[in-house]
User: Which sequence fits this backbone?
């Protein structure tokens, strides 16, 4: 009887160890969809970092103006990749996750507005502007006349300046009305603009500003989201980075 119990415990222990060994690797590895999203959002690496903003209802007028701070950071949690945009003291948008939809080939923004209402916006790049429009107004169909459709336009002017324009309309109307625009200036130094003279983020290819170490070697990432992704799976991140650099070298 004692021998039978010990044998059973040994088998269970081996099974648990095997499951425990495989599970973290499955969780840490970036999926093909995550990689595609990351690559599609790479053009926005220059956004990563903290920005201080001055908001205006009407351009050139301080009437009704406000001050806010915004920040962009990479996120690789919950099976998706995206850039999280968080704003303090905003009059319009509280937070949003910018991602990429491979099926529609559009950028998406899962937005939470200042009044805690939620909408998904989608759109494409128009020259140097990312124009996103509501696709899921929160109000039910019965309230279609009062449902609000938002249009948010991000435009980066240079490595230190960008603007975010807010417009909205009723679902039954066609004309958008401007409700505010925020002019952002980057806080402190350049946090994520690509710079050939500086270190490169091993996760996204942006400018490396945060040092991380693995097996005694120092590497760089561009934000806390990339730092967490690196710490979760340094082997996988570095393998993908080296493969990408080798591929780039072959195309030169």
Assistant:
């Amino acid at each position: 009887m004692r021998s039978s119990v010990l044998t059973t415990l040994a088998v269970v222990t081996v099974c648990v160890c095997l499951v425990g060994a495989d599970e973290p690797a499955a969780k840490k590895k970036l999926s093909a969809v995550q990689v595609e999203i990351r690559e599609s959002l790479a053009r926005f690496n220059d956004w990563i970092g903290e920005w201080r903003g001055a908001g205006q209802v009407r351009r050139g007028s301080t009437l009704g103006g406000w001050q806010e701070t915004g920040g962009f950071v990479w996120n690789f949690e919950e099976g998706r990749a995206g850039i999280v945009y968080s704003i303090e003291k905003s009059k319009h948008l509280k937070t949003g996750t910018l991602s990429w939809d491979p099926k529609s080939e559009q950028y998406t923004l899962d937005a939470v507005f200042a009044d805690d209402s939620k909408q998904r916006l989608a759109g494409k790049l128009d020259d140097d502007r990312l124009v996103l429009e509501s696709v899921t107004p929160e109000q039910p169909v019965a309230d279609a006349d009062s449902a609000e459709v938002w249009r948010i336009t991000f435009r980066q002017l240079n490595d230190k300046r960008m603007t975010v324009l807010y417009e909205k309309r009723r679902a039954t109307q066609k004309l958008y009305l401007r409700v505010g625009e925020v002019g952002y200036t980057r806080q402190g130094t350049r946090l994520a603009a690509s710079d050939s003279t500086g270190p490169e983020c091993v996760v996204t290819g942006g400018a490396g500003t945060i040092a991380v170490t693995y097996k005694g070697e120092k590497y760089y990432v561009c934000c806390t989201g990339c730092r967490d992704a690196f710490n979760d799976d340094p082997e996988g991140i570095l393998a993908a980075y080296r493969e990408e650099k080798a591929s780039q070298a072959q195309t030169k």
Remarks:
- DSSP finds four helices and twelve strands in the chain.
- The first helix runs from residue 2 to 28.
- The chain has two domains: 41-186, 194-252.
